[in-house]
Design brief:
2 copies of one chain form a homodimer. Chain A is an alpha+beta fold. Chain A has 2 domains: 119 residues, Creatinase/prolidase N-terminal domain (Creatine Amidinohydrolase, Chain A, domain 1, 3-Layer(aba) Sandwich); 217 residues, Creatine Amidinohydrolase (Alpha-Beta Complex), CATH 3.90.230.10. In chain A, 36% of the residues lie in helices and 23% in strands. Chain A contains 11 helices and 19 strands. Chain A has a 6-stranded mixed beta sheet, sandwiched between helices. A 3-stranded antiparallel beta sheet of chain A has the order 7-10-11. In chain A, strand 16 and strand 17 form a beta hairpin. In chain A, helix 8 crosses helix 9. The longest helix of chain A is centred in the middle third of the chain and has 24 residues. Chain A is elongated. At the A-B interface, helix 4, helix 6 and helix 9 of A face helix 4, helix 6 and helix 9 of B.
Chain lengths: 354, 354
């Protein structure tokens, strides 16, 4: 089973982490370590046990065939505590950046004498580096996303509402082979595009709009992420100028993507370009992030990120310029870090405005 | 501003909670108390401050016009700590069932001498009772969901895949006036319907299938929730039998819905019906839950729920029978508790199989 190696590597770190068991509670880590995509926790000591409930029994049997599956009737806490005690655990690691204060206290009361060890960013480092199967799934999700972009562009016309377009994107994602949209699609026209995370509304697209589309398909849990800004007619001088700055910022950032480089230095390559063009204040978010079982995961590509790029990482590179009242432009590609540099996996076309 | 009264009522509880400020971190509570639907935290002492980031500046100004909005560049922690110190807080409440162990520890380090007070289920009791505007929005979301059900039923035919149908549901939800689907739609045909929380797959519907549909529109953050099980031809004797038991269980549970009744007693009304029919083991989840800014919120309607029904509550009533290999039947309506009993808000038709 493909997840067995991941669990084995985690177990090898038990001494270093000073634990003899780990409770995994976050959805993405449970899925990474067991293959199970429903709601539940995993308990890992000498064995691996998946604790879920009656809603997910059949899915657990299907997705995690080699594991012990316990379908709880009562509280998650009671089943997990019982399991840990029977396993003889003495120091139990938990996800301190996922488990809530109350859930941790509840677990502690149940475990009595057994120690609870807060673990930070469990599996973050492991999940940052994708294996061959993960890269394949991500390539497929990205290709489906690119195909959906191509399909919706054909139909793009003034008069469509943002929500209509968002819906069409989601339909095209499924037609292109994705399981669905991995996050709520952003469709923002005209002044709405100045809002980096706009929600699609009832506003109708106009001929003069910047239309910002940010969406992505998900495939077996793996997330693509694409942003394009498109124009419904020949762009104005200002639209061309802003678009060109963003495109150049992205180009320089991608050129900086190679093993050994810090996340903040890739961010700086884009940020400096935008600042030099006089729009520094208008790039109000980090440059990008890793993608995988979560739409946002390690490494970070913000202006303080100390993450070091390594082969096998997939990251978004998404600079933007947002001008209140006027609108915004963002371009986002996904890049795979390779031993010698990087490969841009996103193939959706961009405008070449010189 | 409509949220001001909610904040005022929370402030009135500060003495009882032994705090002079509260940090609100959960999305639904931030929205409930400020109107803001993006990512951010609210700090409430004598004033209310919304802390978000550059991605949401415009949305915050639009949705929370009366509030102080701080767009952070650095960490959430630093801005919140600074704000609390300047406000002179001495005991700060936080959402102990939302904030992670790490986030709480980080906040504590920043606050140094200032006390941190864990609060459980902040706003749960307040949010359980809907005000007139909330009931109106929920009625609209439910009506859109019913309309979408009617529309997809017209097209239902063997050969459609589950994912096709899920996509069509989401399209119809928007056409019917919802902002979108409030949660991933469940479409499960034939044996897949035995899985209470099945994900739609590539399986094609067959003439003999039970087809279980569980979906709901969301409107301005308020969630509808509907389950129907439909047949593509005249149901078999077994399908009729199971459907009738579930329908009778739901009928008895709804008859039990009135002010003063415990959640567990409503659950029991359905569960006893199903047990008497010989299918007790096959009803593997709680009877229902409150709906509102979250798809699952208080009150609970599980077999141990001590929540007391009160006028203004909206709850789902959703018994089911799931038989591995054969399939499942679930029916779900939303019910509004009224001063004298209840009103079934869901109007989507059910089969009358006597």
């Amino acid at each position: 089973m493909r997840t067995a190696g991941r669990v084995a590597r985690l177990r090898e770190r038990f001494d270093e982490l000073k634990v003899d068991a780990v409770v995994v509670s976050s959805e993405a880590n449970v899925r990474y370590l067991t293959g199970f995509s429903g709601e539940g926790w995993a308990v890992i000591d000498g064995e691996t046990t998946l604790v879920t409930d009656g809603r997910y029994t059949l899915r657990a049997e299907r997705e995690a065939p080699g594991l012990q599956v316990v379908c709880r009737n009562g509280s998650m806490r009671d089943v997990v505590v019982d399991r840990l005690k029977r396993g003889g655990a003495t120091r139990v690691g938990f996800e301190a950046d996922h488990l809530t204060v109350n859930a941790r206290n509840d677990l502690k009361r149940g475990l009595r004498g057994i120690g609870l060890v807060p673990l930070a960013a469990l599996q973050r480092a492991a999940r940052m580096i994708k294996d061959a199967r993960e890269v394949k799934l991500l390539r497929q999700a990205i290709a489906a996303t690119d195909a959906a972009f191509g399909a919706v562009c054909k139909d793009l016309a003034p008069g469509m509402t943002e929500v209509d377009l968002a819906l069409e994107i989601e339909r095209q994602l499924r037609l292109a082979g994705a399981d669905g949209a991995g996050f709520p699609s952003i469709v923002a026209g005209g002044p709405n595009s100045a809002d980096p995370h706009a929600e699609p509304g009832r506003r109708k697209l106009r001929l003069t709009d910047n239309v910002k589309l940010d969406f992505g398909g998900v495939l077996q849990g793996y997330h693509a992420d694409l942003t394009r800004t498109v124009f419904l007619r020949e762009p104005t001088r200002k639209q061309r100028e802003i678009y060109s700055v963003v495109r150049e910022a992205q180009r320089r950032a991608i050129a900086a993507c190679q093993p050994g480089v810090l996340g903040k230095d890739v961010d700086a390559a884009a940020r400096d370009t935008i600042r030099e063009a006089g729009y520094g204040e208008a790039f109000s978010h980090g440059l990008g992030h890793g993608v995988g079982l979560e739409i946002h995961e390690g490494p970070g590509l913000g202006h303080t990120s100390q993450d070091v790029l390594q082969p096998g990482m997939l990251i978004t590179v998404e600079p933007g310029i947002y001008l209140k009242g006027w609108g915004g432009v963002r371009l986002e590609d996904i890049v795979l870090i390779t031993p010698k540099g990087c490969e841009v996996l996103t193939k959706a076309p961009k405008l070449d405005l010189g």
